[in-house]
Amino acid sequence: MTKQEIMNRVNTHLEYAKKEIGFTDDQFVGIFVYGSTNYGTATEDSDIDTKLIILPTFEDMCLNRQPVSKELHVEDEHCEVKDLRLMREMWMKQNINFVEVLFTDYCIINPKYKELFDKYFVDKREAIAHGNPYKAVSSISGQAMSGVLRLATPKTVYNAWRLYYFLSDYVEGVSYEKCLKQTGKRKEQLMRIKRGSFTPEEASDIAELLLKFKERYEFLLFEESESAAAAFETLNTGVIEIIKASLNEFCPNAPTKSTFMSKLTNAEERAYYAIVNTIGSEGNVTVSKLVDSTNISRPVYNNLFNKLKENNIATVTNMGVKGMYIKITQPELRAEAEEL
C-alpha cells in the first residue's frame, strides 16, 4: 500500500469518527497509525488501524464529564478514540501501542495544535518512551506472552517474536524508533512467520525466551533519568497548553482590538488586513505571495506574526510548504475578519 493510500484510509477514519462522535474541528488534535505499518512488516492484507486524539469541550471541563474513550470499527479496521488526558496516562504507563504513535510517519495533526504537539510530544518522544523502563518491560513482556501461551497462531507467534526483539533492544538503550523497526534476518523471520510459516520450536522457544526475559527484568529497578523526569513534566505541560489553546476562545487573554492595533506600525496594520482579506478569520497564507501582491516586506509579516502570537490574538503555525496557518482568536478581530 502506498503512503497516499494509507493516508486516504487515515482520513476515512477521521471523517467516520467525526460523524459517529460529533466532535468539532477545535476538539480534534490528531489521528495516528499504529501497528505493522509502523514496523515495516505490513503485508498486502494488513489493516490500517489508528489512534485518534480529541479534546474535552469547555462544557466537559466545567461539568467534569468523563473523558471520551471509544473504539470504532471502520469496515474491518479499528479507530480508537481517546481524550488527550487519557492519552497522557497511556504514555505515562509506557503502553507500546500508544507510545508508538509519536514515531509514526502516517498521521494528520490539527494545524492549530501542531506546533504545541511537536514541541511537547514529538520533540521529546525518545525521552518519553524511555521514561519508565520498568513499566515498559513489564507491560510489553506481558502483552507478548498473553497470546502465544494461549494459542500458537501466525499472529501470536509473530507478535511474540516482534516484541521480544523490541524488548531486547530497548533494555540495551537502543532508540525507540529503531526498536520498532527490525531489519535483516530478524525482519525476514517476522515476515515468514506472519505469512503463516513457523516451526513448533519457534513457538515454544519464544514462550521460553519471554518467560526468562520477564524473570530477569521483572524485579529490576530502573533508575529514572533526569531527562526522562523532565520529559514527563513536559508531557503534563503539553496537555495543559493544548487544552488551554482549545479554550482560548472561551477564556481569552488578549488585548482589545484598539489596544492591539496601537501596537502595530502602519505597515504591519496593512499586512494584517491583507491577510484577513485573503483568508477571513482562518486559513493558510503564503508569505512570498503576500509580499508580491502587497509590496510589504517579509520582515514586516514576520514581525506581525510574532505580535499576533505574543498578544494571544491568533494561532500562527508554520506549515512548511503549505505556508502559515493562521486562526484569529481575539473575539472582536475574529468577528471583524469573518465579515470581510
Give me the CATH architecture of the largest domain, please.
Answer: 2-Layer Sandwich
Question: What percentage of residues falls in helices of 4 or more residues?
Answer: 55-70%
Strand arrangement across the biggest beta sheet: 3-4-2-1-5
Largest sheet: 5 strands, mixed
SS element count, helices: 18
* CATH fold-type name of the largest domain: Beta Polymerase, domain 2
Q: How many beta-strand segments?
A: 8
Detailed description of the structure:
The chain is of the alpha+beta class and 340 residues long. It folds into 3 domains: 108 residues, Beta Polymerase, domain 2; 85 residues, no CATH class; 83 residues, Orthogonal Bundle (Arc Repressor Mutant, subunit A), CATH 1.10.10. It has 18 helices and 8 strands. It has a 5-stranded mixed sheet with strand order 3-4-2-1-5. The mean pLDDT is 89.
Would you summarize the structure shown here?
The chain is an alpha+beta fold and 340 residues long. It has three domains: 3-110, Beta Polymerase, domain 2 (2-Layer Sandwich); 133-217, no CATH class; 257-339, Arc Repressor Mutant, subunit A (Orthogonal Bundle), CATH 1.10.10.10.
SSE map:
Blueprint: H1 3-21, E1 28-34, H2 36-39, E2 49-54, H3 58-62, E3 69-74, E4 77-83, H4 84-92, H5 96-99, E5 107-109, H6 111-122, H7 125-129, H8 133-148, H9 154-170, H10 176-180, H11 184-194, H12 200-217, H13 226-246, H14 257-262, H15 266-279, E6 282-285, H16 287-294, H17 298-310, E7 314-318, E8 324-328, H18 331-339
Parallel strand pairs: 2-4
Antiparallel strand pairs: 1-2, 1-5, 3-4, 6-8, 7-8
